[in-house]
Amino acid sequence: MNGITTVFLDIDDTLWWFSRNSELALASTFKLMGCAEWCRDYDAFHDHYEHFNHELWQLYNKGEVEKEVLEVLRFEKALEASKYCCDDIDELASAMNTCYLNQLVRHHNLMPGAVELLQYLHNKGYELNVISNGFKGVQERKLEAGGMNRYIKHVILSEDCGITKPRPGIYDYAMQVCGAKPSSIVMIGDDPTTDIAGALNAGWRTIYFNTRGIDCPEAHHTVSSLLSIKDLL
Ligand SMILES: [Mg+2]
After folding, report:
1. How far is the CA of 174 from the centre of ligand 1 (A)?
2. Out of 20-24, 58-62, 84-88, least confident range
3. C-alpha 40 to ligand 1 mean position (Å)
4. How many angstroms does the Cα of residue 167 sit away from the middle of ligand 1?
5. CATH of span 19-104
6. For residue 73, how far is its CA from the centre of ligand 1 (angstroms)?
7. How confident is the model at residue 55 (pLDDT cuts 50, 70, 90)?
8. Interval between CA 179 and ligand 1 midpoint (Å)
């Protein structure tokens, strides 16, 4: 890829193995909060949580729900759907969210090859930045816990500019911060909409990391492992 000087990477499920770490954090939260005492079917609770979490994140990415509402409501709806029927449902949901976020950063699984790729790109002289809709504090802790922050120059979070991927403003903000032209930037991410479509609109080049078998023909390149990006950059 000629003329590329700057690489933007997504964090969750691109560098940091969010789906794995989240599964572990959710299971610990369920146990620590004593949910097994009233709910015998963890798998059903898990599926409800995933469903409502996904639904709420889609609204959050469109700017239609606040972070604080998303965090508690995903647990409240999962509890409701699991037939939890005490009056303290909102307090329990809020306590579960706090517990889940604390558990989340205790699990440090990275996507295979993440650190090796960052090291490689860093040694090749690329400027490495991350761009994410994830929450401030949480995202920074992930980069630190994974030992990845030493390679990252700028951490661009939607919370800092008030605009989520894939809306154009966050890409403009990212270019202002790093001072790079669109033609010199490549975006690496696992989401066809928030990562690839958004970056294409901004005039960036794109590498789609296909982790779930969903095609994204618009991307300039598609890889199924992080280390195969070495052949492109
Ligand atoms: Mg992602």
Report:
1. 17
2. 84-88
3. 32
4. 15
5. 1.10.150.240
6. 21
7. very high
8. 24
Query: What is the rounded average pLDDT of the residues 81-107?
Result: 92
- Range 6-17+110-231 has CATH code 3.40.50.1000: yes
**Distance from the CA of 86 to the center of ligand 1, in angstroms?**
35
Domain with CATH 1.10.150.240 in the chain: 19-104
Q: Where in the chain is the domain with CATH 3.40.50.1000?
A: 6-17+110-231
At 105, the pLDDT band (50, 70, 90 cuts) reads: confident
SS (H, E, C) the chain: CCCCCEEEECCECCCECHHHHHHHHHHHHHHHCCHHHCCCCHHHHHHHHHHHHHHHHHHHHCCCCCHHHHHHHHHHHHHHHCCCCCCCHHHHHHHHHHHHHHHHCCCCCECCCHHHHHHHHHHCCCEEEEEECCCCCHHHHHHHHCCCHHHCCEEEEHHHHCCCCCCHHHHHHHHHHHCCCHHHEEEEECCHHHHHHHHHHCCCEEEEECCCCCCCCCCCEEECCHHHHHHCC
Residues in the 5 Å CB sphere of ion ligand 1: 10, 12-13, 190-191
Q: How far is the CA of 80 from the centre of ligand 1 (A)?
A: 28
Dist. CA 46 → ligand 1 center (Å) = 20
User: What pLDDT was estimated at residue 1?
Assistant: 87
Give residue 189 CA to ligand 1 midpoint distance, Å. Answer: 6
Q: What is the pLDDT of residue 15?
A: 97
